[in-house]
Specification:
Length: 313
């Protein structure tokens, strides 16, 4: 009885939060895109520091940058909140922001580094993995890949709120192509895409309970071995890609050539070393512009550290 009541209360709370959030976004849609996004930027800089996660963000920043003064850490955290608010607001205006086209009928607000690589991968049907991190508006990556005709099946984690999750999924599917929900069995779905000479997209900068032991900003953490294990299984290329937010509601998309993953003495991908290599690439990206990464995430939290069985060479 109490469990049923608690579940109903949780569902009601989810529904209320979703209605408030979606209602705010509908109101935001009434404003011109530039004004609306600038408004949420300013609002987030004021409200963000009041959230409990702000303390988590400052703690993580202090550990990552022990030599930076507190004022600098607060500035980075303020930029982070503004970036997250703009990301939410861009759900409303993404079609408008990407609707302004250049001479090649590509979004004028998006600067692409590696455009020729998008086309080369499109015309070369082999299995490959493209990885990124929660930087800038990271959801533009599969959208831009689709604009170049490169199909990418992206793994995504839906919000815990089922009402918000349904709304976001509906909006994402129209522009982001094939989406694979992160849940039990999702690795098999990714493997099926690679078996069919397809491309998969992975976000690799979140904690992973019982993941492989690695470091990030010099601190121990657990990281997902999925990318390395799939690369090992299919011996496929792995490409880094990132989105950087630029002034004036503009973006830069960068797709890089395939990286050489570390290998064992038998020539197979070394899962732990490859996972660490990916962490190091993401760390370099974050250091380029730390205000565009989500420092409030408990990346270094290790709830159930277990000794992992060795991966056979």
């Amino acid at each position: 009885m109490f469990a049923r009541l608690r579940n109903r209360t949780r569902i009601a709370n989810y529904w209320l939060i979703a209605q408030v959030t979606l209602g705010f976004l509908r109101l935001l849609r009434l404003l011109p895109a530039e004004r609306a996004l600038n408004f949420v930027d300013r609002a987030a800089r004021r409200v963000g520091p009041l959230a409990g996660r702000h303390r988590t963000a400052i703690g993580n920043l202090r550990a990552a940058y022990p030599d930076k003064p507190d004022a600098e850490l607060e500035r980075i955290a303020s930029d982070m909140w503004a970036n997250m608010a703009r990301l939410a607001g861009e759900y409303v205006f993404i079609e408008k922001l990407l609707g302004e086209q250049d001479g090649d009928e590509l979004p004028a607000r998006v600067e692409v580094v590696g455009a020729e690589l998008f086309l080369r991968l499109r015309d070369d049907p082999r299995p490959r993995i493209i990885f990124t991190a929660h930087l800038g508006n990271f959801e533009l990556l599969p959208i831009m890949a689709a604009r170049y005709g490169l199909a990418v099946s992206a793994l995504f984690r839906a919000p815990n709120n089922p009402f918000l999750a349904a709304e976001l999924l509906e909006n994402r599917e129209g522009s982001m192509g094939d989406l694979i929900a992160s849940r039990q069995g999702s690795v098999f779905a990714l493997a099926r895409v690679l078996e069919g000479n397809g491309n998969i997209g992975l976000l690799v900068d979140q904690k992973f309970v019982d993941g492989v032991p690695t470091t990030f900003f010099g601190r121990e953490c657990q990281s997902s071995p999925v990318l390395a294990r799939l690369a090992r299984q299919f011996d496929c290329d792995v490409h880094p890609a990132r989105c950087t937010r630029l002034p004036g509601n503009r973006f830069r998309i960068e797709l890089e050539e395939a990286i050489e993953l570390p290998r064992t003495a038998k020539g197979r991908v070394d899962v732990q070393a490859a996972t660490q290599m990916v962490n190091d690439i993401v760390e370099a990206w974050v250091r380029d512009d730390p205000g565009q990464w989500m420092w409030f995430h408990r990346r270094w939290e290790m709830k159930s550290w277990k000794k992992q069985p060795p991966v056979r060479a």
